[in-house]
Amino acid sequence: MIESFLASWDLFHNAYLAGWGIALLLSLLGVWVVARDQIFIGAAVAQASTFGVAVALWLAGLSGGLAFLETHPGRSFAAILFGLLATLLTARGGGEGRESHEAITGWVFLVSGAGATLILARSPHGLEEIKRLLTSSLIGAGPADVWQFAVFSALAVAAAAALRRPLLLYAIDPEMAGAVGMRIRRWGIGVALVLGVSIGLAIHVAGTLYTFGCLVLPALVARSLAREVGQMLWLAPLVGVSASVVGFVLANEYDFPPAQVTVVLLCAALTGGWAYRRWRG
Amino acid sequence: MLHDVELEVGEREFWFLLGPNGSGKTTLLRGLLRELRPLAGELSFDPELAAFARIGFVPQRCDLNPALPTTLREFVGLGLVGIRSSRDEEGARLRDALDQVGLRGFEERDHGSLSGGQHQRALLARALIRRPRTLLFDEPTSGLDLTAEHALLRLLERLQREEGLTVVVVTHDLSLAARYATHVAAFHQGSVTAGTRDVVLTDEILRRVYGMGVRIDAAGVSIDGEGGK
Q1: Mutate which: B57, B71, B78, B90, vs A, most A CBs within 10 A
Q2: How far apart (Å, rounded) are the C-alpha atoms in residues A229 and A231?
Q3: Whole-angstrom Cα distance, residue A24 to residue A40?
Q4: Rounded distance, CA A131 to CA A208, Å?
Q5: Do B68 and A35 touch (CB under 8 A)?
């Protein structure tokens, strides 16, 4: 099994490395999402990023002047932009006299899902791209994607190490965070920006399923195993990267799509985690 | 909105901010936490008493996601945000804070398994780990039974006397103020009457604040025409 995986390295190493980078980055960010109990936001932002790619393809089809949007960087830009808008929009909910987070998140998810298909309904090539994003395929990843996620992951790990305590306090008790002098509004915008950019980048390389799976499943597994939120910060990336390594090896051996195998493995790990938590009491 | 406030909170004082719902108590507390700025007038802070690192805040409640795993050690340690200290010093601060609230030995307990009274003491420990000079409380006794309520207030009284802390408590409970306060600020339609307990807790001021006769005597608090609390 390992020999066969190593034999595929020359052909698919960019896809493997980008996939592991995404798993590391998103599973770390997912700790914040899970700690805030805003799991559905991850799904909505991922869907909005997909909508962004659809809008880019549609605009590129309208006029030759916007051909940039059909290129890899152009679609990445659109995915990030829509991901950012979605995170900022969902972050605004829940205040006095405003709609709830859940209502706004649901709206973003549904309008993005329906919009992505409708806007490209008459473009066979565009619909194919959206299907690829929704079903998740890592095959198209290139060296630039690998470097991009390596750098982002390194930055995320460094930020999590340096700002561990304020991040945790902000995630689990924002009122107290404000009382000790943290500027809550700025932190909220900062976290939303990081989430929007990371999910937007990941969507374009790995698709919705793998992105959303890596965002929430490792952190949920970590939550069921850890005794403290702080432990989730190293457990979640460990679970995410381990599952994607094993998932890619199994997918190569049995000729399955790697993203789906990884997500199934993470779901199995989560079921085990829940059982462990129940047993632990 | 508060519009007529003249108030000076000094060292080693035990303040109760009293008044009906919506009278501005929590607004003033948020001002003390720098979350709100006055539109007019001045709100000034003695850096020794009220720099962020010198303030401990205890919210009414902490809506911690119950599914999150958190030990008491981690929960209390989060109070150290914004304070630079070595690992050894953090350990010493944690031990001191837990000692002060009587939760030493509970470090590894899951936060979710604490009782209401223990949870309130954990919140206080999270404030005390900052080694504050000033403690601010928003309705600290809501949801506590009578025994836990007085245990908490006696603890605050001891901290104020023995550790020299300044304590500011927002509460609805007049009887607690009558028993524990050294100073009271009574809020009424955006204005504040403040001073020592005996000066503020008079029949006349309480009638103005609550819009009815409220009497405080040895039997407790009573409303004119009704029995004592």
Answers
A1: B78
A2: 5
A3: 20
A4: 10
A5: yes
Give the confidence band of B218 by pLDDT, cuts at 50, 70, 90: low
- Largest CA-CA distance found in chain A, in angstroms, rounded: 61
Distance in angstroms (rounded) separating the CA atoms of residues B83 and B97 = 15
DSSP for B50-100 reads HSGGGEEEE-S-----TTS--BHHHHHHGGGTT----HHHHHHHHHHHHHH
CB crowding B58-79: b at 16 or more within 10 Å, else e: bbbbbebbeebbbbbbbbbbbb
Give the Cα separation of B9 and A13 in Å (integer).
66
Overall pTM surpassing 0.80 (yes/no)? yes
Domains along chain A with CATH numbers: 2-274 (1.10.3470.10)
Rounded mean pLDDT of B106-115?
A: 86
**Cα dihedral A252→A257→A259→A261 (10° resolution):** -70
Tally DSSP H helices, then E strands, for chain B: 9, 8
User: Can you read off the two tokens belonging to residue B15?
Assistant: 């303040």
| Token digits of residue A128 | 């194919």
3-state secondary structure of B170: strand
For A32, residues 6+ apart whose C-beta sits below 8 A from its C-beta are A167, A171, A191, A195
The tens digit of pLDDT for each residue in A188-233 reads 888 888 888 888 888 878 888 899 999 999 999 999 999 999 999 9
| CB proximity under 8 Å: A 175-194 to B | 175-182
Q: Confirm or reject contact between B74 and chain A (CB < 8 A).
A: yes
